[in-house]
Amino acid sequence: MQTVDTVQRAIDYIEERLAEQVTLEEIGRAAAMSVPNLYRLFYALTGHPIKEYIRKRRTSEAAVLLRQTELSAKEIGFACGFDAYQTFLKTFKRCTGLTPGLYRTTGTIYHFERIHLQERVAYAEEREVSERYQDVKVIRLAPQRGVSWLHVADREEGMEEEAFARFASLLSDRRIDPGRARLFGWNAEPGEGTGTYGYRMAAVGDEYLGDAAGNTEPLEPVEMLGGTYAVTWTPPHPPAEVRKTWDLLLSEWLPRSRFELGEHGFLEEYQTFNGRLARMKLYLPVRRSEERDGIEIAERAPVKVVTFRAEGTDCASRADAAASAWLTRRGLAGDRRLQVFMRCSYGTSPEESQTYEIGIAVPEALPSAVLGEEDRLSELAGGSYACLATRAYGSMTGVLERIYRWLAASETYALDDARRWYACYLPADHVRAQEDEELERSIRAVCCVPVVRRQTP
Predict the structure, then answer these.
(1) What pLDDT, on the 0 to 100 scale, is given for residue 456?
(2) Which of 81, 143, 157, 447 could form a disulfide with 19 if both were Cys (CB 3.0 to 4.6 A apart)?
(3) Number of domains in the chain
(4) Do 207 and 355 lie in a common domain?
(5) C-beta contacts of 170-178 below 8 A and 24+ residues apart
(6) What CATH number is attached to the domain comprising 411?
(7) Which of 236, 268, 288 finishes a domain?
(8) Residue 38: enclosing H or E segment and its boundaries?
(9) Strand pairing partners for 147?
């Protein structure tokens, strides 16, 4: 661990002076090691030669500025620490495969982020998963302390952006540079605030604790417990892009990985450059899976459901909102006797309209007045299904892929094209959750794909 801390000091020294010209001797003195040792240990622990690490980090920051500012490529090159414009052009093209001008006009994204050695987790992942999701890393976030502020809002849409902007302003008022602090955010209870939704922002670092009180709008001390996380990054705008990346983690990467959803909190980290919000890192809480749930064939009875269907952009959010509004109108919000089902388009081309459908099965014990003439009723067909229990969320893409691959290799069962797949959400029997967050974590989904027995030749 002492070696890790030593190399991390070298990394931190580089990051604090990324736009400046620093020598290897200066970095070595900051880390208290000789230049030859710096070369060897830096490469051994990061996988990158020290000079190459500096070039890639400068190129990554330059890539952000090319997309988010109108500065010329020459100005950006010097702002990011390159000593000559030709050096910037050569390095940028070698790292990205494009000139700065072409990079500005294409959809290609180059990203090489700062390394935190203490956060790395050693684990063996299937090669297909690691190659398919190269931007997803599993890290161990250490417990951290700092200052925080609770943002309260009447609406959920845009809440995170408002919280970040206000918190950055509060930090600046206290002469804390938001660009030098690690900024995190997470959903929180609004407490005694007047709004419906809460989002807590935090700047971590013991040096900020002295700024927690004594102001008109005081900051509060906060302790983040840390834990194991699957981490990836996303552009901060538009919000739909952030939701898309969360869905990738939850519904695609998680069910394919050797991990399952952990009990610690979801986090978002805000990264700034030159005073602008440059990118976000999403932290999905995970733990190593004790065992991978098996696929079972089960006979399922037909179920009549009240259906809420949406198509196109943000179809999942709109279907969820319609279902929630119906539950509220009928006085059924939070009723754990209800069964909730979901199905959405899977395997469609980008040109085809995306669909998302929520189904709510109302128990016979409830009054018939619960259902109105305007309610859209449909039936989930009964029969044989290949079922996989999971704690994945979202579109279930990764879970469905596992089942379809299993069917492709099965000599007994084949996909039944006459019926549609669906997911059934049920709280785990052994959990008596009362709080919303506990209830969300207790829910398991059973993904059901219709099957028939293969005909023997």
Answers:
(1) 64
(2) 81
(3) 4
(4) no
(5) 170/217, 170/219, 171/203, 173/215, 174/211, 174/215, 174/219, 176/203, 176/208, 176/211, 178/203, 178/272, 178/275
(6) 3.20.80.10
(7) 288
(8) helix 35-46
(9) 203, 221
Average pLDDT, integer, range 10-38: 90
Provide the pLDDT for residue 437.
Answer: 45
- 307/212 same-domain check: no
Looking at per-residue pLDDT, the higher value among 310 and 271 belongs to 310
* The pair of three-digit structure tokens given for residue 287, joined into one six-digit string: 């733990």
Give yes or no for a contact between 386 and 448, defined as CB atoms under 8 angstroms apart. Answer: yes
* CA nearest neighbour of 447 among 293, 335, 253, 312: 293
Q: How much is the pLDDT for 5?
A: 83
Residue 277 and residue 394 share a domain:
no
Whether 132 and 176 map to the same domain: the answer is no
Residues 89 and 127 occupy one common structural domain: no
Residue 238: the pLDDT is 82
DSSP 63-130: HHHHHH----HHHHHHHTT-SSHHHHHHHHHHHHSS-HHHHHHSS-----PPP-GGGB------HHHH
Let me know whether 125 and 272 are in one domain.
yes
Same domain, 448 and 302: yes
User: Residue 126 is part of which domain span?
Assistant: 121-140+227-288
Contact by Cβ (8 Å): 360, 339: yes
Range 245-268 burial, b when 16+ CB lie within 10 A, else e: bbbbbbbbbbbbbebbbbebbbbb
In a domain, 115, yes or no: no
| Residue 254: both structure tokens together | 């998680």
Do residues 190 and 331 both lie within one domain? no
Give the least confident one: 84-98, 148-162, 313-327, 355-369. 355-369
